[in-house]
Amino acid sequence: MAMRPSLDDLIALTLNAGREIMRVRDAGIDAQTKGDGSIVTLADQRAEAVIEAGLKQLAPNTPMIGEEAVAEGRIPECGATFFCVDPLDGTKGFAKGGDEFTVNIALIEQGEPIVGVVYAPATGELYAGEPGRALAAKCEPHSARLVTPFEPIVVKKTLPPQWRVVASENSGRDARTAAFIDKLNGSSSHASSSIKFCRVAEGAADLYPRFGDVSEWDVAAGHAVLAAAGGGAMRLDGSPLRYGADRDQQFLIHGFIAYSWAASAQAALKAL
User: Fold this and answer.
1) Is the dihedral of CA 5, 120, 110, 228 positive or negative?
2) What is the pLDDT of residues 120-176, one digit of tens each?
3) Which of 4, 105, 148, 269 has the greatest number of C-beta atoms within 10 Å?
């Protein structure tokens, strides 16, 4: 098996990509439309180039599945171990000048997200996880220097008066998500991109539902942080959420539930 990069190395690489995104943002955003109708910016491309070069140095024998590379048809042959990368998750909001976007890097082994880093360059929120530890810190947005030290985070494993559900602002307004929250008699909050996984990981929420299609690189890093904090994620049929199996479908996931512990997972399945 190839040597696994250290979590510290992956954190440093994620911060470097975040700096590159902020440099592009400061110079002015130039958005283009890809063939599938989604948006790509120079920041996406430059951040992915930074990450791809860094991963080749850290783990030259481990392939990388990246959003922009896949969009260009560059899908490497990869076995059970690969990196799953979204250099800029939340491009649409980024292109509009918003702050709700993240850099996501995950290492997948045997279908499971083993190591993950999620960084929000505009707000400085930084989360990282590997087996046995999940961490959170705050950075200065432009320099990406730590302004608070890393602190351990864990999911909350107590029965709450209401299940706390976190969703994106857009999906939080769709009928299925609203019905799910109502059936749980839950309370709802909103967060951006992969930060929703991190809200569950740090104990601020119990569940994060996603009922539409989403790409693996949008999910894997946050899932890794959540798993390291003691939580998990499952498909809508209750089976474990795994990665790399649906390559013929362009690495799509057809909905999932991220959960804090067994009780919240069971409550979610009953509410589907």
Assistant:
1) positive
2) 999 999 999 999 999 999 999 889 999 999 999 999 999 999 999 999 876 556 899
3) 105
Q: Are residues 11 and 146 in the same domain?
A: yes
H helix or E strand, kind and range, residue 188: strand 187-190
CA distance 83 to 217: 9
**The tokens of 188 are what?**
């709802």
Q: Which helix (H) or strand (E) holds 95?
A: helix 91-95
Q: What are the structure tokens assigned to 92, written together?
A: 């649409």
Distance CA 179, CA 213 (A): 18
pLDDT at site 174: 85
> Is 11 found in the same domain as 143?
yes
Contacts (Cβ under 8 Å, ≥6 apart) of 231: 155, 200, 201, 258, 259, 260, 261
pLDDT above 80 (res 36): no
Distance CA 168, CA 150 (A): 26
User: Which pLDDT score, from 0 to 100, does residue 171 have?
Assistant: 57
Per the structure, the count of domains in the chain is 2
